[in-house]
Amino acid sequence: MNQKRSADIAVIIPHYNDRDRLHRCLTALVADPEIGKADIVVVDNNSDQDLTPLRELFPSVRFFIETLPGAAAARNRGVRETSAPMLFFTDADCVPQAGWVAAGRAALDTSDIVGGAVELFDETPPPRNGAQSFEAVFAFNQKYYVEKKGFSVSANLLTWRHVFQDVGDFRPGVSEDVDWCHRARKRKFYLIYDSSVLVTHPTRANMNELRKKWRRVVCESFELQAGLPFPRVRWAVRAGLVLASPMLDLRKLILSNRLRTPKERAAGIIALFYLRALRAGWMVRQVFGWPV
């Protein structure tokens, strides 16, 4: 069942305790008319949830268990378990849109690495709460990430196997997509953004989910500073910039056409100031070596 398959594309999906969203992701994938040419691999990160029902619903999908924690280890396992020349990375909570496979194949014909678009949707009825309003404006700005920051989030990251092998595995314990793309660009591989390669992603439903996300991002981003000169000084300066950043981003939130009502904008403003202050506080603790 789990022998490597002859295919031109390997779709690699890490999963951890998110069975319902994984079901939605796989349903969208198998509906794609081009998916017959792809090898879909789900790498479960040792979840508590039983995936037997999904194995039965999607017999063409191959499932593996990776006991090493973290999405980086799961993605690396997916690469090892496949042989296709093109690697399409997405996440279990993403929904690949119609034409994702064909658009991704076409985009990779012109580049070494592709960062596709990630659009947001709500899983609850309106109005949006503060977490959802914040995410609707600020989350997954892939075009900016690719063209200004030099990386693509792994929710919609495509590359060639020979590029991945040259760059090396995703590194656990850091922001693995940022780190991997930066290593790739240092090796002169070319990264482009393509809006036609589209997946959608749900907004975080509440502030607890956002706090969890940003705590992880802060911890992983701090680890990326290790190889830079004066890392703690740089991190302290960055903490100050994060604390001041709401004043720069306030206009963006107020004028965004993604928010529908004054109540959503007000909730988003509260979330903006709260989250940036929280992040800055965590970063200061890291500067002094205190636990986050």
TrEMBL record:
Domain Glycosyltransferase 2-like spans what residues?
A: 11-141
> What terms describe the molecular function in GO for this protein?
glycosyltransferase activity
Q: Could you name the domain of life of the organism this protein comes from?
A: Bacteria
Q: Which Gene3D superfamilies is this protein grouped with?
A: Spore Coat Polysaccharide Biosynthesis Protein SpsA, Chain A (3.90.550.10)
Ordered alphabetically, the record's keywords are: Glycosyltransferase, Transferase
Similarity comment: family membership: Belongs to the glycosyltransferase 2 family.
Name listed for the protein in its UniProt record: Glycosyltransferase
Q: Which organism is it from?
A: Microvirga alba
Highest classification ranks of the organism: Bacteria, Pseudomonadati, Pseudomonadota, Alphaproteobacteria, Hyphomicrobiales
